[in-house]
Amino acid sequence: MTSLAGTPDRPVRVSAVLDAPLSRWLWLVKWILLIPHYVVLFFLWIAFTVVSVIAFFSILFTGLYPRTLFGFNLGVLRWSWRVAYYSYGVLGTDRYPPFSLGEEPDYPARLDVAHPARLSRGLVLVKWWLLALPHYLVVGFFLGGWHLGWWHGGLVTVLVAIAAVVLTFTERYPKGLFDLVLGLNRWVLRVAAYAALMTDTYPPFRLDMGGVEPNEPEVLS
Questions:
Q1: How far is 31 from 29, CA to CA, in rounded Å?
Q2: Interior CA angle at 63 toward 59 and 65, to 5°?
Q3: Residue-wise pLDDT tens digits, 72-100
């Protein structure tokens, strides 16, 4: 399995392998199968928020993100990414995601964020809201959300719905569509790590499509 170790210029690494064949019908019930994950993630994201507040003050006064806290929040992001990949964030695998905060190198969806030696004490005051605001607008378009009581699906929702229809009739996930969906999710995860104070490297306004990061081997095996 290819290493996802981050580098200073690209600390957030997102990779995935498209499984084949995929079930034509399983996507219809994945939301039911994932209810246990949704329950656990609800509480994990509450803890994620609390840990992020503690990390904020740690960075503000010391410039350090404690490794234990960093590892927990990275675990929550990894868990969420695996669930999204299995379900309606990608539909890229039928392998049920593990209940784990760990790396899980054998699962087809992977995420890593390099732990920073030091973080800017000044940037921590503004990067999660002011500096990230342009990205929030882009991510909002990708993911959609609630508006006046109605659900408005984003671009990812539309593309994954198309993939589901194609799967139903052909049992295939078009590679070009998969590459685009992965690129959108990679953008979202980079912004999530930046907004969660896990890196000072500003996310690029760039759509890096495909299952692997740029300049990495095509196959994660």
A1: 5
A2: 55
A3: 999 999 999 999 999 999 999 999 999 99
